[in-house]
Design brief:
- By secondary structure, the protein is mostly helical.
- It is built from ten helices and three strands.
- It has helices at 21-51, 58-85, 94-127, 132-135, 138-163, 181-185, 193-228, 233-259, 269-290, 292-306; strands at residues 11-14, 91-93, 173-174.
- It has a three-stranded mixed sheet.
- It is globular and about 70 Å long.
Length: 307
Amino acid sequence: MDCKNGSVVTEFILVGFSGDWNLQVFCFVTFSLIYGATVVGNILIMVTVTANSTLHSSMYFLLANLSFLDMCLSTTTTPMMITDLLAEHKTISLWGCMAQMFFMHFFGGAEMTLLIVMAFDRYVAICKPLHYRTIMNQKLLSRFVAFSWLIGFIHTMSQMVLTVNLPYYGHNVVDNIFCDLPLVIKLACIETYILELFVIADSGLLSFTCFIFLLVSYSAILATVKHKSPGSLSKALSTLSAHIIVVTLFFGPCIFIYAWPFGSFASNKTLAVFYTVITPLLNPIIYTLRNQKMQKAMRKSWLQQIS
């Protein structure tokens, strides 16, 4: 990239959803409602799990942590994206861009690990029900959650330490709705081929490996249930189907964006919206609408508030 005549970049321009004004207003209203529902829905899950003693089990403890990560992941990108829809100049400072990428991969890496922990929790609950409470005790759960945050931190730091000091001169247009590693790295004024391969290995391969591992784990659980108790297969399938939907919705866009991060998928705004805006809303919907115990607890809490 020719950077001889470029000045030092202090801010990036986000292309976002440029085009028809009416479309941008429509997106502003739609995404504002979705983000509001995401925040309310995930907070409602966290409050319900915390306040209701019947939900003080490992499954709901992990679900509350998933809701917190979803809300944080969405908050990292969505509010600014909504604001930019009505802004004439869609810009973000250099360090604001770096912070956005840091927290995106921090919360994303933590959520990947937490979904694996949730798969393990379901394996123990379904395949070793008599030992479930002994194995999935509060001490182990706390360590699992702390481990997921640690993995998220290592995942983001391993990439950000190589990105934050890259030289940026002149070129500062990011063809997306938020800052993300593949597109920002391409703007650097040095050869980034090795760093591009590292991002593929770190984010793309990690996403793909976790996704395959989770699908294999759920298949093994179903195979075990079918072998030991064929009559319980439908119940197990009903329980796991929500997890499989969440895993597919979360990892699908990640794999497309990061397994080929320097191709056309990296700047695909539809995948970016789905990953950061839609999925964090679908998670609470999937878990609350399919979980009768959670619905009952929410109704009980609501009746207590209005009585």
